[in-house]
Each structure stands twice: as structure tokens, then as C-alpha cells.
Amino acid sequence: MGIPLAFAAATCSICGEPLNARGNCVACLLRTALDESVMEANSDASFVFGDFEIMRHEDGSVCELGRGAMGVTYLARDNVLRRKVALKVIDVPAAARGSQAVRERFLREARAAAALRHPNVAAVFQFGASPDGSRCYYAMELVEGETLGLACGGMVRSVQSWLCKLRSKLRGH
Q: Which of 17, 69, 114, 133 could bridge to 27 as Cys pair (CB 3.0-4.6 Å)?
């Protein structure tokens, strides 16, 4: 049984290599795995981004504030102004480093956030990229407090509790 026609002509949108039967690019998977090995070897350097350094807990683990579709946000220190900031970081896949598409998309996000002026929106301070193009980041105002998930979780629980009580009253219990 041969390779289906759909997979025979499919190529990776990043590097142009043919995709395997599962639709994966083996070349990009290998490059990513090798890059992660190099990153682990240079772990201390991977926590400094320009003037910003990702902070660590007492046990040495990084202070992660959240994760999203494009990257991870960390608690960091601005070493010039000596203040805490939130630092959003994305890893650019090795195969995409020659292309500016990922960087440009992240830059658009940073510019859109920087253009907003509202008390409920964190201010963006700076955008940057690592010298080798492997990571992009932007620093923003650190807003202390509970996460949106925790805040909404309490509200959801109280609404659920209220609905249960209402249901019981309607049933005559």
C-alpha cells in the first residue's frame, strides 16, 4: 500500500521538506529537539532578555505567571529601573528563524497592547529579540492580584450555588 496522494505532495510550510504520513515535518521536529538540548545546556543565559531577567523561586524554578497560545509570561526584574515586570516570551522554531512571520505576529500583538490606554490593561514597556532570533519578548507592567481564572471561578461557584438553592426552593425542598 503506497502513501496517500494527499501526503505525497504535502510539504512543510516552514522549511519546505516533505511531511511524513502523520503530517509532521521530521526535519523541523529534529531541529526543535536539538534546540531544546542546546537551551538546556545554556539554561542560565536563557533567563536573561536584554535588561530583563526572569526571577526564580527559592527552589530554583522560574516564576511563571501564565501560558497562552503564543508564549509564556514570567515574573521578571528590570535590572536598569529595578522594578518587577511581567515578561512574555515566545520561542521561535529553528526552522522559522529565517522567516520574520512569527516575530512580526508577536510584534503586532505587542504594538496592539502598547496602543491601549486603560486602567484594566497592563502597559507594555519594551519589545526585543534574542541575538540569535530564537526568542522574542516584551516587557509589561506587572499587575499584582488574583488571576482571571481564580476571580471567575469564585463567581461561577457562587452562581452555581445560587442556582442549586433556587432549584431546591422551586421543588419545595
A: 17
Average of pLDDT values for 40-66? 82
What is the pLDDT confidence band of residue 36, given thresholds at 50, 70 and 90? very low
CA distance 34 to 41: 11
Long-range contacts of 130-134 (CB under 8 A, 24+ apart): 130/49, 132/97, 133/92, 133/97, 133/103, 134/35, 134/39, 134/91, 134/92, 134/94, 134/97
Q: Hey, what amino acid is at 145?
A: G
Residue 14 near residue 28, CB atoms below 8 Å: yes
Q: Which domains, ranges and CATH numbers included, belong to the chain?
A: 1-41 (no CATH), 44-142 (3.30.200.20)
Report whether 43 contacts 60 (CB < 8 A).
Answer: no
* Coil vs helix vs strand at 103: helix
Beta-carbon contacts of 7 under 8 Å, excluding residues fewer than 6 positions away, are 19, 20, 21, 23
Tell me which amino acid residue 92 is.
V
Question: Are 65 and 87 a contacting pair, CB within 8 Å?
Answer: no
